[in-house]
Amino acid sequence: MVEEVRAEAVTNEQLVEEAWEVVNESFLPDAASRPWSPEMWMQRKQDVLQGTIKSRARAHDIIRKMLASLGDPYTRFLSPSEFSKMSKYDMTGIGLNLREIPDENGSFKLMVLGLLLDGPAYSAGVRQGDELLSVNGIDVKGKSAFDASSMLQGPKETFVTIKVKHGDCGPVESMKVQRQLVTRTPVFYRLEKRENNDSSVGYIHITEFNAVAKKDLR
C-alpha cells in the first residue's frame, strides 16, 4: 500500500519516484502477479518520468496505473483523502474490505475481499467473495471501493442496510447491519515452550491489516 504522506514537501515527479522506490525495494511477486523483474520495473520508471507531470492529480493517476501493471490486488496507491476515508472506515464501518473487480460490461463490481471475524458484517452473514450491490438502497455498481466504504460509514451504533449477492451464483440478500466504533484487534499471539528446552517460541497471527494492526503489533 502506497500512501502520500508529504503532499506539499515533494514535487509531482518526486512523488511518482517515491512510489516506484517503495515497490522496487519491497515488492515480492508471486504466482498471482504478472511477470516482474527489476529491469522491467526500471523501464517502467523511465517511461512514466519522460515528461513533466503538471498536476498532483496527474501524478496520482500515473502511480495508480504504474501499480496496476503489477497485477497485484494488494498493492495500491492511496491519496491523502482516500487514506483518511480508509482510516475512518476502519473505526466506524461494518468490518469489511472491498475490492474492485472488472465485469463483462467494461465496468467493475465490488467484491468482499476480507472481513473482520465476528465483526458486524460477518455476524450479519456477509462472507468473503460476496458482491456488494447497494448501500441504503443506492446502487454501488461502478463506484470505487473507497466511495462505497464511505457510504458504509456513520455514527456508532447506527444501522446501514446493504444488499449482497452471495458467491457467483448465490442468492441476493438484504441485511441491516449495525456499525461499530472500534475494530477488534487483528493481532493474536501465543508463547509456547519447546520440548526438552528452556527456550520458548512466539507465534503471531494477523487476521487482517487495518488501522489498528500496526499499533497492536508493536
From TrEMBL:
One of its GO terms (molecular function) is serine-type endopeptidase activity. GO terms for biological process: proteolysis. It is an enzyme of class 3 (hydrolase). PROSITE patterns: PDZ. Its EC number is 3.4.21.102. It comes from Zea mays (Maize). Protease involved in the C-terminal processing of the chloroplastic D1 protein of photosystem II. This proteolytic processing is necessary to allow the light-driven assembly of the tetranuclear manganese cluster, which is responsible for photosynthetic water oxidation. It is found in: Plastid, Chloroplast thylakoid lumen. Coiled coil: none annotated. Belongs to the peptidase S41A family. SUPFAM superfamilies: ClpP/crotonase, PDZ domain-like. Residues 83-153 form the PDZ domain. It catalyses: The enzyme shows specific recognition of a C-terminal tripeptide, Xaa-Yaa-Zaa, in which Xaa is preferably Ala or Leu, Yaa is preferably Ala or Tyr, and Zaa is preferably Ala, but then cleaves at a variable distance from the C-terminus. A typical cleavage is -Ala-Ala-|-Arg-Ala-Ala-Lys-Glu-Asn-Tyr-Ala-Leu-Ala-Ala. The gene is LOC103636140. GO terms for cellular component: chloroplast thylakoid lumen. Keywords: Hydrolase, Protease, Serine protease, Thylakoid. Pfam families: PDZ_6. This is C-terminal processing peptidase.
